[in-house]
Amino acid sequence: MAVGKCEFPQMHAVAGIKLGTACAGIKQTERDDLLLIEMAEGASCAAVFTQNAFCAAPVLVAREHLAMQPRYLLINSGNANAGTGEQGLLDAHHSCTAVAQLGEKSAEQVMPFSTGVIGEALPIAKIVAALPETQANLMEDNWHKAAHAIMTTDTFAKGYSKVVEIEGHTLTITGMSKGAGMIQPNMATMLGFVATDANISQSLLQQCLAAAVEQSFNRITVDGDTSTNDACVLMASGKSTLPEMTAESAALPVFQQAIQDACMHLAEAIIRDGEGATKLIKINVQQAQNEAEAVQVAKTIAHSPLVKTAFFASDPNWGRILAAVGRSGVERLDVEQISIYLDDVCIVEKGGRATSYTEAAGQKVMDKEEITVTVVLGRGEVGQQVLTCDFSYDYVRINAEYRT
Amino acid sequence: MAVGKCEFPQMHAVAGIKLGTACAGIKQTERDDLLLIEMAEGASCAAVFTQNAFCAAPVLVAREHLAMQPRYLLINSGNANAGTGEQGLLDAHHSCTAVAQLGEKSAEQVMPFSTGVIGEALPIAKIVAALPETQANLMEDNWHKAAHAIMTTDTFAKGYSKVVEIEGHTLTITGMSKGAGMIQPNMATMLGFVATDANISQSLLQQCLAAAVEQSFNRITVDGDTSTNDACVLMASGKSTLPEMTAESAALPVFQQAIQDACMHLAEAIIRDGEGATKLIKINVQQAQNEAEAVQVAKTIAHSPLVKTAFFASDPNWGRILAAVGRSGVERLDVEQISIYLDDVCIVEKGGRATSYTEAAGQKVMDKEEITVTVVLGRGEVGQQVLTCDFSYDYVRINAEYRT
Fold this sequence. Notes:
Number of helices of chain A: 11
Helix content of chain A: 25-40%
Shape of chain A: globular
Strand content of chain A: 25-35%
Radius of gyration of chain A: 22 Å
Largest interface: A-B, 65 and 66 residues
Strand order of the largest sheet of chain A: 9-16-11-15-12-13-14
Oligomer: homodimer
Order of helices and strands of chain A: EEEHEHEHHEEEHEEHEHHHEEEHEEH
Largest sheet of chain A: 7 strands, mixed
């Protein structure tokens, strides 16, 4: 049911970053569900995590271990190890210890990640048993298998890979993400892992990641539900010939943009695979007074079940978009200044139906698979874009049947 | 598809309040869609309106006319006269003038209300043509027809009627509401009309209504979408033998509670008729620091598509409730203090799955048609309740097909 082309790209290996998968049989036994990522000595690692107050045990542990120069990431799908209390924390620590023993590192150098059903005990014995296989499979050229191993309700594996040239040196950026439901990331996405061979300090890498995530993963929503397990990691192995970047480097803005492009691509892939999605909707709010109110208006539209079902029905029911803008909570909103467009068709001007609008023109846009809604607020200079998908029978089916 | 018993009650006439209906053929020609309510001379009238910035033309006009001692309410279903710009305002004023001419009052004494599809021109000629019939039909004992005339996607007419005794005098309270979708009233509901024969000043009546609505219509949500046309009106004809109430009257708190009971009943009826609803969910947040955060947590749960689809599936997927509490945005939420119950079954304690919880016990509650979710925050003394319904295939079907 994914929207548009979702082919898995050719993934360029990143020197110094190895990946190994195995089937631990956590939820099913048909495919790999465990992934170990090993970073070369001296690599930097940045990460952002969910802001959900009920964050999962692995998030608590990974957040703590981020400061300890991590060398391993351990990711399992099929079980979120969330809402699992004291035992969940013990299990997350246990998995780190097991990885550390294999790799002769300390447990604090392992960051654990889990994704899947909430509230069931992590089958830690199965995970520990499968670890040696993941280690045996560690290879730099293993992103395809890795991206499949972290999937849950995803219908396709999500990858991005690009070799950029900066000041005569090549830099590789390769990443993957997963997620299709419980998606309204807040400071991070469900799970995203991006690697590069850049030379960069941890603190600068963390700044790059935070800025990129804010404009990518934090601008998408499937259902408004922020997961307990969201995390996005950026690894930099330092193996590129490009000299180490500092805050003053001319290369830094180029690198920053390249990381943001990677995050945006991976974030968009999540929306294309939104649970039950048949359409990709870009909601573009312009002329806001600030970023916060632009995002507020865009997300109110993106979360409206009435707007989302109208898109599913390809119904140009623009009144629902207008009503969502009106209830978005922006203070002193002057509806007389507002215009709304479906692609390039003006549907609302001066707060009412545009005189030039025809149902036929609206229908033509609504029949497309990818649609941009542009809301011009007429009160400032700031624009922001949020990506979402429509709301279909299949969303209900997928989430009504998820645990059965 | 309505939840539970939704029989229309026996409606006691309210002296001094007459209702007349007609079929104007606004959207369909099968049933009455136009209602005129006439208040006796000297009646007080209070009203609250939607906070949506894009409020409909009739809301703008009714809000203005509220101060002019209104004698008539004119309500049409089938067309919201919202998003209709300058022409919509002209049409709303036109309808007031037409009523005023019939009744030999001024146009400012008429409050117009519209509900139905957004963004289409109000068929004002049809309305004006049907007005004489509504006037000819004016009767005190006409609530049954009136409640049907204001329906849109409602599957049953919603009424409430009670005769209360205060200080040896009888007071009648009779009201009706409509609404099934685009329901997250903010200061008012889709449409609610309550009448009483109490003697009470407009300002005191307005206070009573605002307080009652805050704890009733403002505590329900179907889909989180606040309509452009929400309005709730309370009329007091002054025909009761009970002497006029003042702010000091011992009778006032009794009256206030009776009005709140009426509003609560009518609000609950809207949720029982929520679009596609198969279950009525009461979300009860206790031990909050203040009312605002209690409502914030309750509404986050009530709006979660994942929680709502789990209820539809009768799946005790409590992890979704926990995740919604965690993302509700309450600052410094200590998850260790939180307990969550499905009816009387404890599902979460100290932030994790309750040790006493069994899937069988959770399933038993989820199989019911009416379920109470109780969230104990453990950080204060304040409790609040929000009512919602589940999210079914039929919600998608109804809203995908609405205009076709």
